[in-house]
Design goal:
Blueprint (H helix, E strand, L loop, with lengths): L9 H6 L3 H26 L6 H29 L1
Length: 80
């Protein structure tokens, strides 16, 4: 399903209009806070947490921000 009822591409909504930049900035801030909450004690003690856990910690806020932007844009398009 590449387009919605308004004919707008989902890819365009997800990757256009500044969405990736906003999602990346959110991911950087929120991901860093989450890494410190979840792995800060290990990092401070000199133990490196598994890299896949850190990557996922940054991916989740990126995906959530992108999803929120797309659904918000879709809602706005439907109301027009």
């Amino acid at each position: 399903m590449d387009t919605n009822k308004t004919g707008t591409s989902i890819k365009r909504l997800a990757f256009g209009g500044g969405t990736p930049r906003k999602a990346a900035l959110t991911s950087l801030v929120v991901g860093t806070v989450l890494v410190m909450i979840n792995h800060g004690d290990a990092i401070i003690s000199g133990v490196s947490p598994p890299i896949w856990k850190i990557v996922l910690t940054y991916c989740v806020p990126y995906l959530v921000t992108t999803w929120g932007a797309v659904t918000g844009k879709l809602s706005e398009l439907k109301s027009q």
